[in-house]
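Recall the central idea of this unit: under ordinary conditions, the amino acid sequence of a chain determines the structure it adopts. In this exercise we apply that idea directly, starting from the sequence alone.
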Amino acid sequence: MEIIMKLRVKKFEQGSNMHVHALMLITMVLVAGSFPVAGLITNALAPELMMFVRFLLAALLFAPFVFLKNGWHFPTLDRFRAYSLISIPLVVFFWCMFESLRYTSVINTGALYTVVPAITAVFAYIINNDHTNRRRKVGLLIGTVGALWIVFRGDLQALIGLQLNYGDFIFLIGCLFMGIYNPLIKRFYRGEPMEVMTFWVILIGALWLFILSFNRLDQIIWQNLETKVYAGLLYLSVFTTLGSFFVLQYSTVKLGATKIAAYGFLTPVFVIILSIVIGLEAFEWVTLPGIGLVLLSMFMIQKA
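Accordingly, the structure predicted from this sequence is:
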């Protein structure tokens, strides 16, 4: 009877979290869209300037909703310190993303992003003492193999020779920092409204980027930038900064860091589709086995 009750509880919990999984799928499509969008505009501005505008615009757009719903409350020193620590991995990751796209392809960055779940599992154990069961470990391994297959186009010799370019190495550094992000959310979340946490993380991220880009702000002739640059920044600010940060933080609290990070395995699949649609990349059949492994790994981790 006790076993039956536990199974029913587990089934109810899975059902009650279906909206979280739906939100994550939508978010992964939007995140995947950020790679080709970033690829189109990455040479328009220095990475730190691009990220400063992105974070600041997202914070300004989000501020009215946050303050009208929750009132104006400056965080305590303890919460400010926590939000600052959470924002650092995001700033580093997105800087690495834009810098890397100057030297590598959109599909490579999208594929390399799938190592984030494995990195997240390691940091979740270190930071939160979250243990990963055998099924999840196997799923993480399969997903990583699938990601490597996509990056190296199934070329075993290239994999053995580790023929990663300069941009790939920069993005891998960013992935290391992104792997810290979800565990930090779980570590520092104290039950405040999720939109409040999201707003302060984004705003403090904008402050870090302002410090990094301060000396270059007066060198930009903003009226000379192409329309696509402003459109790209608006997309990145609204959908993959404001929207995705909120969903990621909300979902991490609901499902845990490793399960949420596992959705990153879908990124190269969506990146390939979107990149082909907008003409940035050509589809290569050799990537299909990697895509299959990535989908299998995500299924295994979610069911673990």
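Residues 45-303 form one domain.
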